[in-house]
Write a structure and sequence with these properties.
GO terms for molecular function: CoA-transferase activity. The chain is α/β, with parallel strands linked by helices. The chain is built from 18 helices and 12 strands. α1 crosses α6 (179-201) and α6 (179-201) crosses α7. The two termini are 26 Å apart.
């Protein structure tokens, strides 16, 4: 569409694995031209993080794991060796013609090749350069490597999650998926768009964005961190029961399945007691007001466990929703994508993979009335657009392209190169 939000913005995505590529994918969803840069013969290592693979029989360099598929749609792909002077020059020329560069190499890596912010700012002062690292560009740990689980641990998230002390299976617990990678990409996306707005609407310059997984995780702890900073008390692990706000709030086992509820205030609580046909709980002094319910949380949970065990989660959900109580059934992913609300909102999208097979993906959650997100191009094949980018963006001729590929400076999919 001609009026997509980021039409005309070019992004050089030199990142790998998850947090960095997700930034590029979101910018691509919004209409930016995103060029994914991979190392010749190496590729993005997330391609190999499987099974499952979309096509398990593909050549290794062309494998597409679920992680790769999840973070690389709406991009073009090229393979350039930035350890070679010729490759560095190609990337510098591309950076000169780009609006945004995303990288998540260890601190100092790209500086060795003249691809750091200071070097590229000299040739493109308008460049928005986003560096995603584990610990940031400064500080005593800046050179340490790290992955999502490390930062869930070091950033305080893991300590606040898990079953209460003394309960079976008690102790810190990590979020099952790569939560810190995902939230870091979201913070970075806001930063990139803010920097673009400052540059283009407010007469600003380019920018170097320094974002770390550690700080993103600390920021993610939000009101838990505020709880500690205000009181000096560490938040208590409560398993599937909420730790603040209205009580009761949490998960309760049912005859079939599990239900999650949140009762936000005393008025809702009285209505809740009517819905579950326990009016006595509304006047019980242990539970009649929220402060009392919070002080007698365990007794409240014990009573409600008995109540919810009398019917299925489906039955309880219908009754609670009809009564105006916030509630949801605990769904597995199969149930999520069968959910009529999810289906009608277009959360699941389908596109055609280059193999001709259907590729299903989770849509962006952005809903724009005037310029909707409507393009979901399948993630690119390794080096799929190397020739196209070098020809169209840099104006290189066929002879030069063939020499670069022959010398191993660039690489591309043969079938695409010959097309």
């Amino acid at each position: 569409m001609s009026d997509r939000q980021l039409k005309g913005i070019r992004v050089l995505d030199m990142s790998r694995v998850l947090a960095g590529p997700l930034i590029g994918q979101m910018l691509g969803d919004l209409g930016a031209e995103v060029i994914k840069v991979e190392r010749p013969g190496v590729g993005d290592e997330s391609r190999f993080y499987g099974p499952p693979f979309f096509d398990p029989d593909a050549e290794r360099i062309d494998l597409e794991s679920a992680i790769y598929i999840a973070a690389n749609r709406n991009k073009k792909a090229m393979a350039v060796d930035f350890t070679r002077p010729e490759g560095q020059e190609l990337l510098r020329r591309l950076a000169e013609r780009s609006d945004v560069l995303i990288e998540n190499y260890k601190v100092g890596t790209l500086e060795k090749y003249g691809l750091d912010y200071e070097s590229l700012r000299a040739i493109n002062p308008r460049l928005i350069y986003c560096s995603v690292t584990g610990y940031g560009q400064t500080g005593p740990n800046r050179h340490r490597p790290g992955y999502d689980a490390i930062f869930q641990a070091e950033g305080g998230l893991m300590h606040s999650i898990g079953h209460p002390d003394g309960a079976p299976g008690a102790g810190p617990m990590r979020v099952g998926f790569s939560m810190v990678d995902v939230v870091t990409s979201l913070y970075a996306e806001v930063a990139v768009l803010s920097a673009l707005y400052r540059r283009d609407a407010n007469g600003g310059s380019g920018e170097h964005i320094d974002i770390s997984l550690l700080e993103s995780c600390v920021a993610l702890t939000s009101h838990h961190a505020a709880h500690y900073l205000m009181s000096g008390q560490l938040p208590v692990r409560r398993g599937n029961m909420a730790g603040g706000g209205g009580v009761p709030a949490g998960m309760f086992p049912c005859k079939e399945g599990n239900i999650v509820i949140t009762v936000g205030n005393d008025q809702q609580y009285r209505r809740f007691c009517e819905v579950i046909e326990r009016p006595d709980l509304a006047i019980d002094p242990r539970f009649s007001v929220n402060q009392a319910r919070a002080s007698n949380r365990e007794a409240m949970v014990q009573v409600l466990n008995e109540v919810f065990a009398t019917a299925s989660a489906k039955e309880w959900l219908e009754r609670l929703v009809a009564g105006g109580i916030a509630a949801g059934q605990v769904n597995d992913l199969a149930q999520v994508f069968q959910n009529e609300q999810v289906r009608q909102r277009g959360t699941l999208v389908e596109t055609t993979h280059r193999s001709g097979k259907a590729l299903r993906m989770v849509a962006t959650p952005f809903h724009f009335r005037n310029a909707p997100v409507s393009t979901y191009a399948a993630p690119p094949r390794y080096g799929e657009h190397t020739r196209q980018i070098l020809q169209e963006v840099l104006g290189l001729g066929s002879e030069r392209l063939e020499a670069l590929q022959r010398d191993g400076v660039v690489d591309g999919t043969p079938s695409v190169q010959q097309a």
